TrEMBL record:
Biological source species: Crepidotus variabilis
Molecular-function GO terms, alphabetical: heme binding; iron ion binding; monooxygenase activity; oxidoreductase activity, acting on paired donors, with incorporation or reduction of molecular oxygen
Reported cofactor(s): heme
PROSITE patterns membership: CYTOCHROME_P450
Protein name: Cytochrome P450
Length: 525
């Protein structure tokens, strides 16, 4: 997703500036005369213009870099920005995030009102954007029950199967490795939720999930739609300049409905025919009391299955793409991990790793931890809502503020992670073993408080078994130019709420003839 994040200057400023000024005047006047704590200072931040606030300071892309830079400039782990009367709070440290999102979770567990995503597109059933309340709790409880850490082993066989069968596609079509990764990770998530038959390539369920997550990410990227700041813009006709969101609405609404309903209905049909396979939908529906009105519970099951499918795919795809990127640019890391795997498994092609090998592969685990730290999938995450006015470190946090945890800054903290910009799995090890004294990346990589991703352990498992399986059998290297020299490429990421590596090329080959035989034999099973 490469739509500019937190940018209010992408072609709509001239068309809506008068509305912004009017709205800002009303909101600022109202706040000034209503708050009882106005004498307390707001957190530091860039200097604000009258009425417009920081609208000209908002970065068009990679906003987490600007947020971290401002934190250093003002020597503060909490900063404040104002856009047309709306307050943005950014937390640049784990300490601040824990205090607000964990200790004071009652005040920071809700979400801002996503006018485009929820009100216009109809994605108001997503727990990631749903306000804190009974509907959110119903879906979150089912999500937690089904993806509880004690249930992890139930999903490992599907992870192993999909990833092992992925290997032959990688070596036969290395130029399409990113599509292969998306299909593999999407297939794992789909199997957990629905367990419907999937095509080997270009499966319509997987394609629809990619389109759906793209629509969600675009709509939740702050600044992507001016209507989020100026709500009256929602009433503009489709032909009006700046109303491009109106022209895309019919397709996005149709996509939302299809994604939510179609796979669920297909599973229900298979249950009636006796051909459905065990999954979230079948397990939960079979537990309903047939003698009671279960309409509400059925909707919760339908929504939760769709959330597992969508959420399980996109964040893990980001991590697996980062894995290939880092192996390409840090070949010595790849070599060291493969040496460890060869000591445990035998020479390439002897056997494939499984989860029982994890205790004997600390360096591979360190590689996975470093991927989560170095290339976080959601650098700023989705905003939390300050339900009531609050005070932190002597600074006032106004009621209704959108509060972001800058995951990127937290996982680049030089005090916790020396030389943080360098990809270095060694930082997680001490005397050849995992060092428990190093702050684990999951403190920030999967969100905070009651909004933390409940399936994070499943995502980490998928990334670990993928990394171990690929490293055991395949060598990732730089492609060669026409003169036979390695083709150099920059390390680049796309901006957006969900951060993926920019497209890059790599050479993917079996580590040995014996490894290729093993790869092809697994594909035929």
């Amino acid at each position: 997703m490469d739509s500019p994040a937190l940018s209010f200057l992408s072609g709509e400023r001239e068309k809506a500036i008068l509305l912004v000024v009017l709205l800002a005047t009303i909101l600022i006047f109202k706040r000034k005369w209503s708050t009882k704590k106005f004498q307390l200072p707001l957190p530091p931040g860039p200097k604000k213009l009258p009425l417009l606030g920081n609208i000209l300071d908002m970065p068009k892309k990679f906003e987490w870099l600007a947020f971290a830079s401002w934190g250093k400039e003002f020597n503060s782990d909490i900063i404040h920005l104002s856009v047309a009367g709306s307050d943005f709070i950014v937390l640049n440290s784990v300490k601040a995030a824990n205090e607000l999102f964990e200790v004071r979770s009652a005040n920071y567990s809700s979400r801002p009102q996503f006018k485009v995503l929820n009100d216009l597109m109809g994605w108001d059933w997503l727990i990631s954007s749903m306000p804190y309340g009974d509907a959110w709790r119903d879906r979150r409880k089912l999500f937690n029950d089904y993806l509880h850490p004690s249930m992890t082993q139930n999903y490992q066989p599907a992870q192993v199967e999909f990833i092992r069968k992925m290997l032959v596609q990688l070596i036969d079509s290395p130029e399409a490795f990113r599509a292969t990764l998306r299909h593999t990770i999407g297939g794992i998530a789909h199997t957990m939720a629905y367990a419907l038959p999937l095509k080997a390539e270009n499966d319509p369920y997987i394609i629809q999930a990619e389109e759906a997550t793209g629509s969600i990410l675009e709509a939740t990227t702050p600044g992507a739609y001016m209507v989020e700041v100026v709500p009256p813009l929602r009433y503009l006709p489709k032909w009006f300049p700046g109303a491009d969101f109106q022209r895309r609405l019919p397709y996005n609404i149709s996509l939302q409905k299809e994604f939510r309903n179609k796979p669920f209905e297909d599973v229900v049909e298979r249950m009636a025919a006796g051909t459905a396979k065990p999954c979230l939908v079948t397990t939960c529906l079979s537990q309903l009391d047939e003698g009671q009105d279960t309409a509400k519970e059925t909707v919760v099951i339908k929504d939760t299955a769709a959330i597992v499918f969508a959420g399980g795919a996109d964040t893990t795809v980001s991590g697996t793409s980062s894995f290939f990127l880092t192996m390409l640019h840090y070949p010595w890391v790849q070599t060291k991990a493969q040496e460890e795997l060869d000591r445990v498994l035998g020479p390439p092609g002897t056997r494939l790793p499984d989860f029982n090998d994890a205790a004997d592969l600390p360096y591979v685990t360190a590689v996975v931890k470093e991927i989560l730290r170095w290339g976080p999938a959601t650098p700023t995450g989705i905003a939390h809502l300050a339900s009531e006015e609050d005070v932190y470190e002597g600074y006032r946090i106004p009621k209704g503020s959108m509060v972001f945890g800058n995951t990127w800054a937290m996982l680049r903290d030089e005090k916790e992670y020396p030389d943080p910009d360098t990809f270095n799995p060694e930082r997680w090890l001490k005397d050849g073993k995992l060092n428990p004294d190093v702050q684990d990346p999951t403190v920030a990589a999967f969100g905070f408080g009651r909004r933390q991703c409940p399936g994070s352990h499943v995502a980490v498992d998928a990334l670990w078994i993928l990394a171990a399986t690929v490293l055991a059998t395949i060598r990732v290297s730089k492609p060669l130019d026409k003169n036979g020299n390695p083709f150099e490429q920059e390390i680049e990421y796309l901006t957006g709420l969900m951060c993926h590596p920019a497209p890059f090329k790599c050479t993917i080959k079996p580590r040995s003839k014996k490894a290729e035989v093993l790869i092809r034999s697994v594909a035929e099973e």
